[in-house]
Amino acid sequence: MADPTPTKAPESRRAFQLSSWTEAKFIGDVLRTETVGGGLLLLGAVIALIWANSPWGDAYTAVGEFVPWSGGEALHLDIDLSHWAADGLLAIFFFVVGLELKREFVAGELRSPRRAALPVIAAIGGMAMPALIYVLINLNTGDSALRGWAIPTATDIAFALAVLAVIGSHLPQGLRAFLLTLAVVDDLLAITIIAFFYTEQVSLLPLLGSLLPLLAFGLLLRVRKNWWWLLIPLAALCWGLMHASGVHATIAGVLLGFMVPVLARPGEQHGMAEQYEHRWRPVSAGFAVPVFAFFAAGVSLRDGGIGAVLSDPVALGVIAGLVLGKTIGILGATALMTKFTRADLGGLKWIDLLGVSLLAGIGFTVSLLIGELAFGAGSDRDAHVKAAVLIGSLTAAVFAAVILVRRNKVYRRISAEERRDRDGDGIPDIYQPEHQLGGEPDGSARPAGTSPGSAASPGRDPAAR
Protein backbone atom coordinates (compact mmCIF):
# COMPACT_ATOMS: atom_id res chain seq x y z
CA MET A 1 0.00 0.00 0.00
CA ALA A 2 1.38 3.42 -0.88
CA ASP A 3 2.47 5.62 1.99
CA PRO A 4 -0.35 8.13 2.51
CA THR A 5 0.63 11.75 2.89
CA PRO A 6 -1.55 14.58 4.12
CA THR A 7 -2.39 17.52 1.90
CA LYS A 8 -3.91 20.18 4.07
CA ALA A 9 -3.04 23.12 1.85
CA PRO A 10 -0.82 23.66 -1.19
CA GLU A 11 2.66 22.52 -0.18
CA SER A 12 4.26 25.83 -1.10
CA ARG A 13 1.92 27.63 1.28
CA ARG A 14 2.48 25.45 4.36
CA ALA A 15 5.39 26.34 6.61
CA PHE A 16 4.99 23.35 8.91
CA GLN A 17 3.16 20.70 6.89
CA LEU A 18 3.05 17.16 8.22
CA SER A 19 5.21 14.62 6.46
CA SER A 20 4.18 11.04 5.63
CA TRP A 21 3.13 8.58 8.34
CA THR A 22 6.34 6.58 7.76
CA GLU A 23 8.39 9.73 8.28
CA ALA A 24 6.33 10.61 11.35
CA LYS A 25 7.05 7.19 12.90
CA PHE A 26 10.75 7.56 12.11
CA ILE A 27 10.85 10.96 13.81
CA GLY A 28 9.13 9.50 16.85
CA ASP A 29 11.69 6.70 17.05
CA VAL A 30 14.54 9.22 16.83
CA LEU A 31 13.03 11.34 19.56
CA ARG A 32 12.66 8.39 21.92
CA THR A 33 16.25 7.29 21.37
CA GLU A 34 17.83 10.74 21.50
CA THR A 35 16.16 11.69 24.76
CA VAL A 36 17.88 8.79 26.49
CA GLY A 37 21.19 9.80 24.93
CA GLY A 38 20.65 13.40 25.96
CA GLY A 39 20.07 12.33 29.54
CA LEU A 40 23.32 10.33 29.55
CA LEU A 41 25.14 13.28 28.00
CA LEU A 42 23.83 15.53 30.76
CA LEU A 43 24.85 12.97 33.39
CA GLY A 44 28.41 12.81 32.01
CA ALA A 45 28.70 16.61 32.05
CA VAL A 46 27.38 16.90 35.62
CA ILE A 47 29.77 14.22 36.91
CA ALA A 48 32.68 16.00 35.21
CA LEU A 49 31.73 19.39 36.68
CA ILE A 50 31.38 18.00 40.19
CA TRP A 51 34.67 16.08 39.99
CA ALA A 52 36.64 18.96 38.43
CA ASN A 53 35.49 21.35 41.19
CA SER A 54 35.93 18.91 44.06
CA PRO A 55 39.04 18.47 46.23
CA TRP A 56 39.99 15.67 43.82
CA GLY A 57 39.97 17.93 40.77
CA ASP A 58 43.62 17.22 40.02
CA ALA A 59 42.79 13.54 39.59
CA TYR A 60 40.17 14.45 36.98
CA THR A 61 42.79 16.44 35.06
CA ALA A 62 45.27 13.57 35.32
CA VAL A 63 42.76 11.10 33.86
CA GLY A 64 42.15 13.35 30.86
CA GLU A 65 45.88 13.82 30.27
CA PHE A 66 46.73 10.12 30.44
CA VAL A 67 48.30 8.84 27.18
CA PRO A 68 47.27 5.20 26.66
CA TRP A 69 49.45 4.60 23.59
CA SER A 70 52.83 6.28 23.39
CA GLY A 71 53.96 4.45 20.24
CA GLY A 72 51.64 6.08 17.73
CA GLU A 73 53.80 9.05 16.73
CA ALA A 74 53.83 8.11 13.03
CA LEU A 75 50.06 8.57 12.73
CA HIS A 76 49.89 11.28 15.43
CA LEU A 77 48.06 8.84 17.71
CA ASP A 78 50.18 9.51 20.79
CA ILE A 79 47.33 11.56 22.27
CA ASP A 80 45.73 11.64 25.70
CA LEU A 81 42.32 10.30 26.66
CA SER A 82 40.53 13.63 26.27
CA HIS A 83 41.77 13.88 22.67
CA TRP A 84 40.84 10.26 22.01
CA ALA A 85 37.31 11.15 23.16
CA ALA A 86 37.16 14.23 20.90
CA ASP A 87 38.85 12.73 17.84
CA GLY A 88 38.00 9.04 18.18
CA LEU A 89 34.68 8.57 19.96
CA LEU A 90 33.10 11.60 18.31
CA ALA A 91 33.83 9.98 14.95
CA ILE A 92 31.12 7.46 15.89
CA PHE A 93 28.75 10.34 16.63
CA PHE A 94 29.54 11.95 13.28
CA PHE A 95 29.11 8.60 11.51
CA VAL A 96 25.52 8.55 12.76
CA VAL A 97 25.20 12.19 11.70
CA GLY A 98 26.39 11.19 8.22
CA LEU A 99 23.74 8.46 8.09
CA GLU A 100 21.07 10.98 9.12
CA LEU A 101 22.21 13.51 6.56
CA LYS A 102 22.18 11.03 3.69
CA ARG A 103 18.80 9.67 4.72
CA GLU A 104 17.33 13.17 4.83
CA PHE A 105 18.70 14.03 1.39
CA VAL A 106 17.63 10.74 -0.21
CA ALA A 107 14.35 9.84 1.51
CA GLY A 108 13.60 12.44 4.17
CA GLU A 109 12.53 16.05 4.51
CA LEU A 110 15.47 17.44 2.51
CA ARG A 111 14.65 15.47 -0.64
CA SER A 112 12.03 18.06 -1.60
CA PRO A 113 13.46 21.55 -2.21
CA ARG A 114 10.17 23.20 -1.31
CA ARG A 115 9.81 21.34 1.99
CA ALA A 116 13.51 21.73 2.80
CA ALA A 117 13.62 25.47 2.09
CA LEU A 118 12.27 26.65 5.45
CA PRO A 119 14.42 24.52 7.82
CA VAL A 120 17.50 25.12 5.64
CA ILE A 121 17.04 28.90 5.66
CA ALA A 122 16.20 28.83 9.38
CA ALA A 123 19.35 26.80 10.11
CA ILE A 124 21.48 29.25 8.12
CA GLY A 125 19.96 32.17 9.99
CA GLY A 126 20.43 30.29 13.25
CA MET A 127 24.14 29.95 12.55
CA ALA A 128 24.85 33.33 10.94
CA MET A 129 23.32 35.46 13.70
CA PRO A 130 25.21 33.82 16.62
CA ALA A 131 28.46 34.20 14.69
CA LEU A 132 27.67 37.87 14.00
CA ILE A 133 26.85 38.60 17.64
CA TYR A 134 30.03 36.86 18.77
CA VAL A 135 32.15 38.86 16.31
CA LEU A 136 30.56 42.17 17.33
CA ILE A 137 31.29 41.51 21.01
CA ASN A 138 34.91 40.48 20.32
CA LEU A 139 35.68 42.84 17.45
CA ASN A 140 37.94 45.15 19.44
CA THR A 141 39.62 42.65 21.74
CA GLY A 142 42.84 42.78 19.71
CA ASP A 143 43.82 39.12 20.24
CA SER A 144 42.90 35.69 18.94
CA ALA A 145 39.35 35.85 20.32
CA LEU A 146 37.79 35.94 16.85
CA ARG A 147 38.95 32.37 16.26
CA GLY A 148 35.97 31.26 18.32
CA TRP A 149 33.32 32.82 16.07
CA ALA A 150 31.79 29.41 15.22
CA ILE A 151 31.42 28.16 18.82
CA PRO A 152 27.83 29.39 19.40
CA THR A 153 26.59 28.31 15.97
CA ALA A 154 26.01 24.61 16.78
CA THR A 155 22.86 22.94 18.14
CA ASP A 156 23.02 19.79 20.26
CA ILE A 157 19.83 17.99 19.27
CA ALA A 158 20.30 15.19 21.83
CA PHE A 159 20.54 17.72 24.65
CA ALA A 160 17.58 19.69 23.26
CA LEU A 161 15.43 16.56 23.08
CA ALA A 162 16.46 15.61 26.60
CA VAL A 163 15.01 18.93 27.75
CA LEU A 164 11.80 18.11 25.87
CA ALA A 165 11.61 14.77 27.67
CA VAL A 166 12.04 16.44 31.07
CA ILE A 167 9.35 19.06 30.53
CA GLY A 168 7.03 16.46 28.96
CA SER A 169 6.27 18.48 25.86
CA HIS A 170 3.93 17.02 23.22
CA LEU A 171 5.24 19.08 20.35
CA PRO A 172 3.12 18.72 17.19
CA GLN A 173 4.73 16.45 14.63
CA GLY A 174 5.20 19.27 12.11
CA LEU A 175 7.12 21.36 14.63
CA ARG A 176 9.19 18.38 15.77
CA ALA A 177 10.06 17.61 12.15
CA PHE A 178 11.12 21.24 11.73
CA LEU A 179 13.38 21.02 14.79
CA LEU A 180 14.98 17.75 13.70
CA THR A 181 15.51 18.86 10.10
CA LEU A 182 16.95 22.17 11.27
CA ALA A 183 19.36 20.29 13.55
CA VAL A 184 20.45 17.99 10.70
CA VAL A 185 21.22 21.00 8.47
CA ASP A 186 22.95 22.61 11.45
CA ASP A 187 25.17 19.52 11.76
CA LEU A 188 26.03 19.65 8.06
CA LEU A 189 27.04 23.31 8.28
CA ALA A 190 29.04 22.67 11.46
CA ILE A 191 30.93 19.84 9.75
CA THR A 192 31.72 22.16 6.84
CA ILE A 193 32.96 24.84 9.23
CA ILE A 194 35.26 22.38 11.02
CA ALA A 195 36.66 21.11 7.71
CA PHE A 196 37.34 24.51 6.15
CA PHE A 197 38.04 26.87 9.06
CA TYR A 198 39.64 24.68 11.74
CA THR A 199 42.04 22.66 9.62
CA GLU A 200 45.32 24.56 9.74
CA GLN A 201 47.75 22.26 7.92
CA VAL A 202 46.93 19.38 5.61
CA SER A 203 49.25 16.54 4.62
CA LEU A 204 48.11 15.58 1.16
CA LEU A 205 49.47 12.01 1.05
CA PRO A 206 47.59 10.66 4.12
CA LEU A 207 44.48 12.55 3.01
CA LEU A 208 44.52 10.90 -0.40
CA GLY A 209 45.35 7.59 1.24
CA SER A 210 42.22 7.83 3.40
CA LEU A 211 40.10 7.75 0.25
CA LEU A 212 41.16 4.18 -0.58
CA PRO A 213 39.66 2.50 2.53
CA LEU A 214 36.70 4.89 2.26
CA LEU A 215 35.93 3.75 -1.29
CA ALA A 216 36.49 0.09 -0.37
CA PHE A 217 34.07 0.54 2.56
CA GLY A 218 31.44 2.01 0.23
CA LEU A 219 31.96 -0.64 -2.46
CA LEU A 220 31.46 -3.50 0.00
CA LEU A 221 28.22 -1.96 1.23
CA ARG A 222 27.05 -1.27 -2.32
CA VAL A 223 27.29 -4.98 -3.15
CA ARG A 224 25.72 -5.83 0.24
CA LYS A 225 28.81 -7.49 1.71
CA ASN A 226 28.12 -6.70 5.33
CA TRP A 227 31.38 -8.16 6.65
CA TRP A 228 31.93 -6.41 9.98
CA TRP A 229 35.38 -8.02 10.37
CA LEU A 230 36.50 -6.12 7.24
CA LEU A 231 34.31 -3.02 7.39
CA ILE A 232 35.44 -1.97 10.87
CA PRO A 233 39.20 -2.19 10.04
CA LEU A 234 38.59 -0.23 6.82
CA ALA A 235 36.73 2.45 8.80
CA ALA A 236 39.50 2.58 11.41
CA LEU A 237 42.17 2.90 8.68
CA CYS A 238 40.23 5.70 7.01
CA TRP A 239 39.92 7.47 10.37
CA GLY A 240 43.65 7.03 11.16
CA LEU A 241 44.82 8.39 7.80
CA MET A 242 42.38 11.31 8.03
CA HIS A 243 43.70 12.10 11.50
CA ALA A 244 47.29 11.94 10.28
CA SER A 245 46.48 14.32 7.40
CA GLY A 246 45.61 17.17 9.75
CA VAL A 247 41.92 17.22 8.83
CA HIS A 248 39.82 16.66 11.94
CA ALA A 249 39.24 12.93 12.15
CA THR A 250 35.50 13.27 12.80
CA ILE A 251 35.13 14.20 9.11
CA ALA A 252 36.00 10.57 8.34
CA GLY A 253 32.95 9.51 10.32
CA VAL A 254 30.68 11.72 8.22
CA LEU A 255 32.15 10.46 4.93
CA LEU A 256 31.79 6.84 6.04
CA GLY A 257 28.15 7.54 6.84
CA PHE A 258 27.64 8.96 3.36
CA MET A 259 28.90 5.68 1.89
CA VAL A 260 26.02 3.63 3.33
CA PRO A 261 23.12 3.04 0.87
CA VAL A 262 19.77 4.43 2.01
CA LEU A 263 17.11 2.83 -0.20
CA ALA A 264 16.08 -0.76 0.42
CA ARG A 265 16.45 -3.24 -2.42
CA PRO A 266 13.69 -5.71 -3.38
CA GLY A 267 13.37 -8.27 -0.62
CA GLU A 268 14.86 -5.96 2.04
CA GLN A 269 12.54 -4.72 4.75
CA HIS A 270 14.79 -1.82 5.73
CA GLY A 271 17.49 0.11 3.93
CA MET A 272 21.09 -0.42 4.99
CA ALA A 273 21.44 3.14 6.35
CA GLU A 274 18.45 2.55 8.62
CA GLN A 275 19.95 -0.74 9.80
CA TYR A 276 23.31 0.85 10.56
CA GLU A 277 21.70 3.78 12.32
CA HIS A 278 19.69 1.36 14.45
CA ARG A 279 22.90 -0.48 15.42
CA TRP A 280 25.25 2.44 15.97
CA ARG A 281 22.98 5.09 17.46
CA PRO A 282 22.98 3.40 20.91
CA VAL A 283 26.79 3.29 20.80
CA SER A 284 26.91 6.97 19.89
CA ALA A 285 24.20 8.25 22.23
CA GLY A 286 24.87 5.81 25.06
CA PHE A 287 28.67 5.79 25.13
CA ALA A 288 30.60 7.99 22.68
CA VAL A 289 28.89 11.33 23.34
CA PRO A 290 28.53 10.93 27.15
CA VAL A 291 32.23 10.00 27.46
CA PHE A 292 33.18 13.02 25.33
CA ALA A 293 30.97 15.19 27.54
CA PHE A 294 32.70 13.78 30.61
CA PHE A 295 36.15 14.81 29.34
CA ALA A 296 35.06 18.08 27.72
CA ALA A 297 32.74 19.62 30.33
CA GLY A 298 34.94 19.33 33.40
CA VAL A 299 35.87 23.00 33.72
CA SER A 300 37.22 24.12 37.09
CA LEU A 301 35.71 27.30 38.48
CA ARG A 302 37.92 27.39 41.55
CA ASP A 303 40.29 29.98 40.10
CA GLY A 304 38.29 33.15 39.55
CA GLY A 305 34.89 31.47 39.41
CA ILE A 306 31.96 32.71 37.36
CA GLY A 307 33.22 36.30 37.61
CA ALA A 308 36.32 35.51 35.57
CA VAL A 309 34.21 33.78 32.94
CA LEU A 310 31.72 36.63 32.59
CA SER A 311 34.51 39.19 32.31
CA ASP A 312 35.92 37.44 29.22
CA PRO A 313 34.44 38.79 25.94
CA VAL A 314 34.82 35.34 24.41
CA ALA A 315 32.54 33.82 27.03
CA LEU A 316 30.05 36.67 26.69
CA GLY A 317 30.02 36.20 22.93
CA VAL A 318 29.32 32.48 23.30
CA ILE A 319 26.49 33.01 25.79
CA ALA A 320 24.87 35.82 23.79
CA GLY A 321 25.28 33.86 20.57
CA LEU A 322 23.56 30.77 21.95
CA VAL A 323 20.70 32.51 23.75
CA LEU A 324 20.05 35.56 21.57
CA GLY A 325 21.73 34.74 18.27
CA LYS A 326 20.05 31.38 17.75
CA THR A 327 16.63 32.75 18.66
CA ILE A 328 16.86 35.89 16.55
CA GLY A 329 18.40 34.07 13.60
CA ILE A 330 15.84 31.26 13.42
CA LEU A 331 12.83 33.49 14.09
CA GLY A 332 14.03 36.16 11.68
CA ALA A 333 14.79 33.72 8.87
CA THR A 334 11.43 31.99 9.33
CA ALA A 335 9.59 35.31 9.35
CA LEU A 336 11.25 36.32 6.10
CA MET A 337 10.43 32.99 4.48
CA THR A 338 6.79 33.09 5.51
CA LYS A 339 6.51 36.68 4.30
CA PHE A 340 8.03 36.14 0.86
CA THR A 341 6.37 32.75 0.24
CA ARG A 342 3.09 33.74 1.97
CA ALA A 343 3.19 30.50 3.93
CA ASP A 344 1.17 30.14 7.13
CA LEU A 345 2.19 28.43 10.36
CA GLY A 346 -0.39 25.67 10.03
CA GLY A 347 -2.38 26.60 13.15
CA LEU A 348 0.73 27.12 15.26
CA LYS A 349 1.68 30.39 16.92
CA TRP A 350 4.89 32.37 16.83
CA ILE A 351 5.29 31.65 20.54
CA ASP A 352 5.66 27.97 19.58
CA LEU A 353 8.45 28.79 17.15
CA LEU A 354 10.07 30.97 19.83
CA GLY A 355 10.26 27.96 22.16
CA VAL A 356 11.81 25.76 19.46
CA SER A 357 14.28 28.52 18.54
CA LEU A 358 15.40 28.72 22.16
CA LEU A 359 15.82 24.94 22.21
CA ALA A 360 18.16 25.29 19.23
CA GLY A 361 20.31 27.51 21.46
CA ILE A 362 21.31 24.46 23.49
CA GLY A 363 24.78 23.95 22.08
CA PHE A 364 27.02 21.37 23.66
CA THR A 365 28.85 18.59 21.83
CA VAL A 366 29.93 20.42 18.67
CA SER A 367 30.29 23.78 20.48
CA LEU A 368 32.73 22.27 22.96
CA LEU A 369 34.60 20.58 20.12
CA ILE A 370 34.95 23.83 18.14
CA GLY A 371 36.07 25.60 21.33
CA GLU A 372 38.93 23.12 21.73
CA LEU A 373 39.88 23.49 18.06
CA ALA A 374 39.81 27.29 18.29
CA PHE A 375 41.79 27.85 21.49
CA GLY A 376 43.46 24.55 22.35
CA ALA A 377 42.32 21.99 24.90
CA GLY A 378 43.32 22.84 28.45
CA SER A 379 43.98 26.55 27.86
CA ASP A 380 42.48 29.24 30.10
CA ARG A 381 40.32 30.52 27.28
CA ASP A 382 39.12 27.00 26.50
CA ALA A 383 38.01 26.69 30.13
CA HIS A 384 36.04 29.92 29.79
CA VAL A 385 34.45 28.63 26.58
CA LYS A 386 33.35 25.42 28.31
CA ALA A 387 31.77 27.37 31.15
CA ALA A 388 30.10 29.74 28.68
CA VAL A 389 28.66 26.87 26.63
CA LEU A 390 27.20 25.36 29.79
CA ILE A 391 25.79 28.70 30.99
CA GLY A 392 24.36 29.61 27.59
CA SER A 393 22.85 26.16 27.05
CA LEU A 394 21.30 26.12 30.52
CA THR A 395 19.85 29.61 30.03
CA ALA A 396 18.36 28.70 26.66
CA ALA A 397 16.93 25.48 28.12
CA VAL A 398 15.27 27.30 31.03
CA PHE A 399 13.68 29.95 28.77
CA ALA A 400 12.49 27.29 26.32
CA ALA A 401 11.03 25.21 29.16
CA VAL A 402 9.09 28.21 30.52
CA ILE A 403 7.48 28.80 27.13
CA LEU A 404 6.84 25.19 26.14
CA VAL A 405 5.44 24.13 29.54
CA ARG A 406 2.87 26.93 29.32
CA ARG A 407 1.86 25.64 25.88
CA ASN A 408 1.99 21.97 26.79
CA LYS A 409 -1.77 21.57 27.27
CA VAL A 410 -2.30 22.86 23.75
CA TYR A 411 0.36 20.53 22.37
CA ARG A 412 -1.20 17.56 24.17
CA ARG A 413 -4.55 18.16 22.47
CA ILE A 414 -2.91 18.63 19.07
CA SER A 415 -0.88 15.46 19.58
CA ALA A 416 -4.02 13.49 20.51
CA GLU A 417 -5.70 14.67 17.31
CA GLU A 418 -2.68 13.66 15.25
CA ARG A 419 -2.78 10.14 16.76
CA ARG A 420 -6.53 9.57 16.31
CA ASP A 421 -7.22 6.37 14.35
CA ARG A 422 -10.99 5.85 14.19
CA ASP A 423 -10.87 3.15 11.51
CA GLY A 424 -8.26 1.12 13.43
CA ASP A 425 -5.94 0.50 10.46
CA GLY A 426 -2.81 1.55 12.33
CA ILE A 427 -2.44 4.83 10.41
CA PRO A 428 -3.76 8.01 12.06
CA ASP A 429 -6.76 9.53 10.32
CA ILE A 430 -4.90 12.71 9.52
CA TYR A 431 -2.73 10.77 7.04
CA GLN A 432 -5.66 9.03 5.34
CA PRO A 433 -6.69 9.75 1.73
CA GLU A 434 -10.18 10.77 2.92
CA HIS A 435 -8.64 13.72 4.74
CA GLN A 436 -6.51 14.61 1.76
CA LEU A 437 -9.61 14.74 -0.47
CA GLY A 438 -11.61 16.88 1.92
CA GLY A 439 -13.81 14.25 3.63
CA GLU A 440 -13.91 12.90 7.15
CA PRO A 441 -13.70 9.18 8.01
CA ASP A 442 -17.37 9.20 8.97
CA GLY A 443 -18.30 10.49 5.53
CA SER A 444 -19.11 14.04 6.60
CA ALA A 445 -17.78 16.90 4.58
CA ARG A 446 -15.25 19.36 5.86
CA PRO A 447 -15.82 23.07 5.25
CA ALA A 448 -14.37 24.19 1.95
CA GLY A 449 -10.88 25.54 2.12
CA THR A 450 -10.08 23.92 5.45
CA SER A 451 -8.05 20.89 6.44
CA PRO A 452 -7.47 18.82 9.57
CA GLY A 453 -4.52 20.99 10.52
CA SER A 454 -5.60 24.35 9.19
CA ALA A 455 -6.28 27.34 11.37
CA ALA A 456 -9.92 27.20 10.31
CA SER A 457 -10.40 23.86 12.07
CA PRO A 458 -11.41 24.66 15.67
CA GLY A 459 -10.23 21.26 16.89
CA ARG A 460 -6.68 21.98 15.78
CA ASP A 461 -6.18 25.69 16.26
CA PRO A 462 -4.04 26.45 19.32
CA ALA A 463 -5.51 29.95 19.44
CA ALA A 464 -8.95 28.42 20.10
CA ARG A 465 -7.68 26.89 23.32
In short:
Helix content is 64%, strand content 0%. The chain is globular, with a radius of gyration of 23 Å. It has 17 helices and no strands.
Describe the protein's architecture and organization.
This protein is mainly alpha-helical and 465 residues long. It folds into two domains: 18-199 and 248-412, Na+/H+ antiporter like domain (Na+/H+ antiporter like fold, Up-down Bundle), CATH 1.20.1530; 426-465, no CATH class. Helices cover 64% and strands 0% of the residues. The chain contains 17 helices and no strands. Helix 1 crosses helix 5, helix 3 packs across helix 6 (173-197) and helix 4 (113-138) packs across helix 6 (173-197). The longest helix is centred in the first third of the chain and has 32 residues, at 21-52. It is globular and about 65 Å long. Residues 5-12 and 436-465 have low confidence and may be disordered.
